[in-house]
């Protein structure tokens, strides 16, 4: 048995007593033994066995999918023109994907791309300039959550088969980040889009198969049962993957996934690792645990459409009355730190976006004592999030101790993403969300989805005209100072302040190699499966 050092990257270092960073010494059995000591070996059949908790919620169609646990499918089956560099722990660096190079005009209105040659879609169609226009048009036609990323495209000029110029209707300094986002425009075979169009722009067809250029083809998609990816033999990249098939069965309980991981039947948990179990995995002799950089944040949503928090001052008072530093360390300690800015870590330079979390329990007590007798507050959380549930219960207990009636309620994703924004007056007063993320680490993309009236993650429909105006101005100029002003205005509105910065916490069998190098800072709950490996020691 050999010992292996698992490094927590610099950008994810957590200044908590519970997690000593620099390096974490995790014992690993070179023979691939499971946590139960059963001696389960690394696979020899080329199959990577993972899992999906509570299904993926939406079809694995890149123009429709806008959630979390299905990114493992969409990011491995589809590619965009550019992407964020995998394995980069220091910054969100945009690098080539299906575009080899690009130029951006000084006014952020024209983006010219030289396309990669020799790329084939899963159906055999060659990738060229026409596919770019067809893919952008299709995203607009579907008009789902991520459609905003191409709504400003005025024209896609095919200069020749491998050169396109994207012309925007107005300046957009964030457009490259739109394209690099895991939710950004993916290239889809124009042949499939034409032949399978039907009356829903090929959505029915792409709910059970893929038509991208990625290293894997979606070979199975059965809602509630599971998904499967199979390596695409004509993939353009110079790869020799050790895993030619990825199985993603659906589970309804994280505890069942943990049990199968610990006895060696599952090869990794890419998300939803309970905080209460994380230290156990850090100390494991048979499993490897990673806290990897991400854009994830903890957000407290507050509802202005109900009387209790209709006033911005009341919303700020509630937020600042909670000891977030202690709460984060108590509940989500391994993998999270108290937020030090208005945006996710790295969205703006650290010397620009800096703030301390204010804790003013006296103001909260005064506010509660001034409310009408019998006032109540409802705190909601997303079903399945044990961290959110624990936080909501702790906050409720604090408010009850001050004399306020507080209830905690669980809500399915369909409610949070559908019912809440449609009927916010019927939603909870507060929604506790310790692990959510923007579409990329561009400051505009965080501000837009959380703070704008039409933002995809503005679940409780709380917005502020000043914030929206400043965000639009910053989008045109790219000014850090203007983004900071927008963050300050958003905080003053008390709509969805950030309280934590979180990392991706992943647990794998000790023999699984290339985890850090296959991880993207922008895509939680997934890895580049084609660059994972079986560590040499596991095959000795």
Automatic annotation (TrEMBL):
It holds the Pfam family SBP_bac_5. Residues 1-35 form the signal peptide. InterPro entries: SBP_5, SBP_5_dom. Residues 93-415 form the Solute-binding protein family domain. Keywords: Signal. PANTHER family: PERIPLASMIC BINDING COMPONENT OF ABC TRANSPORTER. This is ABC transporter substrate-binding protein. It comes from Cellulomonas avistercoris. The lineage of its organism: Bacteria, Bacillati, Actinomycetota, Actinomycetes, Micrococcales.
């Amino acid at each position: 048995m050999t010992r292996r050092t698992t490094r927590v990257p610099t950008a994810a270092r957590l200044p908590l007593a519970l997690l000593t960073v620099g390096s974490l010494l995790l014992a690993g059995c070179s023979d691939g033994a499971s946590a139960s000591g059963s001696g389960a070996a690394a696979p020899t059949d080329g199959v990577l066995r993972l899992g999906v908790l509570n299904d993926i919620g939406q079809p694995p169609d890149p123009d429709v999918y806008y959630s979390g646990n299905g990114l493992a499918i969409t990011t491995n089956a589809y590619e965009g023109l550019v992407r964020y560099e995998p394995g980069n722990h220091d910054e969100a660096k945009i690098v080539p994907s299906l575009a080899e190079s690009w130029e951006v005009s000084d006014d952020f209105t024209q983006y010219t791309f030289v396309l990669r040659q020799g790329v084939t879609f899963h159906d055999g169609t060659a990738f060229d300039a026409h596919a770019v226009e067809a893919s952008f048009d299709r995203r607009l036609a579907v008009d789902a959550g991520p459609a905003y990323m191409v709504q400003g495209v005025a024209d896609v000029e095919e200069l020749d088969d491998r050169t396109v110029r994207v012309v925007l209707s107005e300046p957009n300094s964030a457009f490259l980040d739109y394209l690099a986002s895991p939710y950004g425009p993916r290239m889809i075979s124009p042949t499939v889009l034409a032949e399978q169009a039907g009356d829903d722009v090929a959505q029915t067809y792409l709910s059970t198969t893929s038509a991208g250029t990625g290293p894997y083809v979606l070979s199975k998609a059965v809602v509630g049962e599971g998904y499967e990816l199979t390596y695409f033999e004509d993939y353009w990249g110079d790869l020799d993957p050790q895993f030619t098939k990825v199985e993603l069965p659906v589970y309804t309980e994280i505890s069942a996934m943990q049990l199968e991981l610990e006895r060696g039947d599952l090869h990794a948990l890419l998300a939803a690792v309970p905080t209460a179990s994380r230290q156990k995995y850090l100390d494991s002799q048979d499993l490897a645990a990673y806290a990897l950089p991400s854009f994830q944040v903890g957000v407290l949503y507050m509802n202005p459409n109900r009387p209790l928090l209709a006033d911005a001052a009341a919303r700020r008072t509630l937020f600042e009355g909670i000891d977030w530093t202690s709460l984060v360390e108590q509940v989500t300690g391994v993998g999270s730190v108290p937020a030090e800015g208005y945006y996710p870590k790295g969205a703006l330079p650290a010397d620009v976006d800096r703030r301390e979390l204010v804790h003013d329990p006296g103001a909260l007590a005064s506010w509660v004592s001034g409310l009408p007798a019998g006032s109540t507050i409802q705190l909601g959380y997303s079903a399945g999030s044990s961290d959110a549930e624990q936080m909501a219960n702790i906050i409720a207990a604090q408010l009850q101790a001050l004399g306020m009636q507080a209830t905690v309620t669980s809500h399915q994703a369909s409610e949070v993403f559908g019912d809440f924004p449609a009927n916010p007056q019927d939603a909870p007063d507060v929604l506790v969300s310790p692990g959510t993320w923007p579409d990329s680490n561009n400051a505009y993309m965080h501000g837009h989805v959380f703070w704008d009236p039409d933002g995809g993650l503005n679940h409780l429909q709380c917005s502020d005209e000043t914030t929206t105006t400043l965000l639009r101005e910053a989008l045109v100029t790219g000014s850090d100072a203007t983004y900071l002003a927008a963050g300050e205005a958003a905080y003053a509105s008390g709509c969805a302040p950030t309280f934590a910065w979180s990392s991706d916490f992943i647990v794998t069998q000790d023999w699984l190699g290339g985890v850090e190098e296959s991880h993207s800072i922008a895509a939680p709950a997934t890895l580049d499966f084609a660059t994972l490996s079986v560590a040499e020691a596991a095959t000795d």
